[in-house]
Amino acid sequence: MTSNNALKKSLFNIEEVPFPTPKETKFTFIDLFAGIGGFRLAMQSLGGKCVFTSEWDKDAQRTYEANFGEMPFGDITLESTKKQIPEEFDILCAGFPCQAFSIAGKRGGFEDTRGTLFFDVAEIVSTHRPKLLLLENVKGLTTHDRGKTFQVIQNTLEELGYAVFSKVLNAKDFGVPQSRERIFIVGFDKNQSTKINSFQFPEGEAEPTYIHTFLEENAQGYSISKHLQETYLFKKDDGKPQIVDKTSKIQVKTLVSTYHKIQRLTGTFVRDGETGLRLLTVNECKAIMGFPPQLKVPVSRTQAYRQFGNSVAVPVVKAVGEKAIQLLHSLPITPRLIHLQATGV
Q1: What is the mean predicted confidence (pLDDT) over 2-8?
Q2: Which residue out of 50, 93, 98, 285 is catalytically annotated?
Q3: Domain 211-308 in this protein, CATH class
Q4: Which residues, at least 6 apart from 121, have a Cβ–Cβ distance to it below 8 Å?
Q5: What are the strands of the beta sheet with 91-94, ordered from one edge?
Q6: Do the Cβ atoms of 173 and 124 come closer than 8 Å?
Q7: At residue 114, does pLDDT exceed 60?
Q8: Percentage of residues in the chain with pLDDT exceeding 90?
């Protein structure tokens, strides 16, 4: 969808949706690589108003629109899309894809990110100077390309004038019945917020949450055939899939975007259904990713699994966002400054 079409739909879509923008808001944010809106749900629950969204995947756009009443703008690498971003906003949120960088110079900063999607994030940061950055990525970002990728990202944000903090967090520590490790990067603009000495990431909840309380019973249409079970899932003795039921007081394995392909060693399946074994239902996927039950999923099951597997765990984003916003509000804020550093963009 073109930027113009997205703009028209965001302006004139009056359909009632499960998660409209709050009537009273405390801050503004933009939602890049938005997926189905995990960041937006978390930030709206903290009092945020989303003023721009970008997501190129058509099916994810459908789910996003069904829940927020706005069609995301498309390809963020296009200047026509970037021109739709408001001049000022408080927070930039992005679950950006992980890509290797060709490190041309010794510093590994802004210029070395060209040709990657992170470059577009950095360019937007440089142009608009949000007070706060909330970024999320897979745990492997820290070791990607022998750690060079993560170092370039950190160097770039610091070069742009941000105090940068990062930590790998596991969703299972935040009320989600799933082990899901992701790295979170938080950045504060040192030109606007002074006296930034440190940032403490949330520790999570003391009591774990387990899958058995979220499982549906007698779910129809998700069964794995007996033939597939016998010839694939349980045939080899070098590992078995994770099988859960109403007695399973555990957290499930990480939900991946290819879950529908029924991976034998990395998948979690439920002892239930017509054949005695089935896939997780869409409702169960909502639960293990921390989405509320009223989330609309107007796409095929395959696309639903892809969307949940690519999403963020909402409670983790909320916990990190809450701590960051609390610190931001406690800091002395200087007037918004025009960023004059030459970045070559």
Answers
A1: 50
A2: 98
A3: alpha beta
A4: 32, 92, 94, 96, 135
A5: 48-53, 27-32, 91-94, 132-138, 181-189, 162-170
A6: no
A7: no
A8: 70
State the average pLDDT for the chain: 88
Question: Are the CB atoms for 232 and 264 separated by under 8 Å?
Answer: yes
Is 285 known to be catalytic? no
Q: Any idea where the domains of the chain sit in the sequence? A: 3-205+312-330, 211-308
CA angle 167, 169, 48 (to 5 degrees): 90
Question: Domain 3-205+312-330 class?
Answer: alpha beta
> In whole angstroms, how far apart are CA 191 and each of 17, 118, 176?
38, 22, 36
pLDDT band with cut points at 50, 70 and 90 for residue 282: very high
**Is residue 134 a contact partner of residue 95, using CB atoms and an 8 Å limit?**
no
pTM for this predicted structure: 0.89
SS3 content of the chain, % helix, strand, coil (to 5): 35, 15, 50
Task: Give the pLDDT mean for 204-212.
Answer: 92
What is the reported pLDDT for 238? 65
Reported in sequence order, the residue ranges of the chain that DSSP labels E, i.e. its strands, are 27-32, 48-53, 91-94, 132-138, 162-170, 181-189, 242-244, 268-270
In terms of DSSP bridges, do strands 181-189 and 132-138 run parallel, antiparallel, or are they unpaired? antiparallel
pLDDT more than 70, % of the chain: 86
